[in-house]
Amino acid sequence: MPDIQPDEELDCRGLSCPLPVLKAKKAIGKLAPGKILKVLATDPGSPRDMQKLSVQMGDELIETEEGFGEFVFWFRKT
Q1: Which of 33, 45, 48, 75 has the fewest CB atoms within 10 Å, i.e. the most exposed one?
Q2: Which of 68, 57, 69, 66 is nearest to 21 (CA)?
Q3: Domain that residue 33 falls in
Q4: For the chain, what is the domain count?
Q5: pLDDT in tens, 64-73
């Protein structure tokens, strides 16, 4: 786990595509520039979707972790 303190955390575990990426997009949109969002997800398509979201919105996907069927994504609002 990165040594990063998130400003917000979004739990999307148990949700299927497209809900995790849609909820993440909405949550990132509410953040002030420089703030960190931590997203938890279990959908196997989440890594691809979150990477695309980062490119689409122009926000930084700082880190992605995977373990035990769960994914953790760290975004920084630009």
Answers
A1: 33
A2: 57
A3: 8-76
A4: 1
A5: 999 999 999 9
User: Which pTM value belongs to this model?
Assistant: 0.94
Q: What are phi and psi of 36, to 5 degrees?
A: -110, 135
- The CATH code of the domain that includes 27 is 3.30.110.40
In-domain check, residue 49: yes
Q: DSSP labels for 13-76?
A: TTPPTTHHHHHHHHHHHHSPTT-EEEEEE--TTHHHHHHHHHHHHT-EEEEEEEETTEEEEEEE
Instruction: Identify whether 29 is part of a domain.
Output: yes
pLDDT per residue as tens digits for the range 40-60: 999 999 999 999 999 999 999
| Catalytic hit among 6, 8, 15, 17 | 17
User: For residue 59, is it within any domain?
Assistant: yes
